[in-house]
Amino acid sequence: MSDTQTLARPYAVAAYKRAKETESTSKWSQTLDFLAAVMDDPQVARAAANPKASKEQFTQALLNLCQGKLDKEAENFVRLLIANRRLGLVKSICEQFEQYRAEEEGYIAVNVTTAYPIEQDENERLTALLRKVLGKEPRLNVQIDRSLIGGVLIKAGDRVIDASVQGQIQRLAKRLYN
Fold first, then answer.
1. What pTM does this model have?
2. Count of beta carbons in the 10 Å neighbourhood of residue 138
3. Ramachandran region of residue 109, left (φ > 0), alpha (ψ -120 to 50) or beta?
4. Greatest CA separation found in the chain?
């Protein structure tokens, strides 16, 4: 288990408990996803990690940036993360929150990366296959990555299925070098 996951866990647990108490898991899910996207911006991430930056000024700047996207509870959560220098963990917090939500609601989040967009019938077949393999209702999050060349890369929890051309080439190269 990585240090990031360990550090993020109490925040994810607290956010999930609060979301359950207020019956707003969907809203919290969207908020955490939004915050993770904001932190993906290199300038924001650099400013958040700067130990010389004033926490108060950074907090105000970030809240101004997110104006209209966060409710009062989310703003307080952001303040807490900034005060504890944990804003950089928001992606891991979001991932763990989604895992708790999936367990509670009986589904499994599945990240599917393909080289090209998949058709509706392919999506349905893949969903049915994953339902059998994983034993839970899969919720697919499909992303396009042309570097895969072809095929598909599937991540569901701690399981990874690499059926991409890029993965096959890497495995072949590994065998040739060994």
1. 0.71
2. 21
3. beta
4. 57
User: Hey, which residues does 161 pair with through a beta bridge?
Assistant: 154
Q: Which amino acid is at 123?
A: N
Question: Cα angle vertex 157, ends 161, 9, to 5°?
Answer: 150
Start-end of H helices in the chain = 3-21, 25-39, 42-49, 55-65, 72-83, 90-105, 120-134, 165-177
Looking at residue 103, its pLDDT comes to: 85
Give CA angle at 12 (37, 6), nearest 5°.
100
Percentage of the residues of the chain whose pLDDT score is greater than 70: 99
CA distances from residue 120 to 38, 148, 153, 171 in whole angstroms, order as listed: 30, 20, 18, 30
Residue-wise pLDDT tens digits, 44-60: 999 998 888 888 999 99
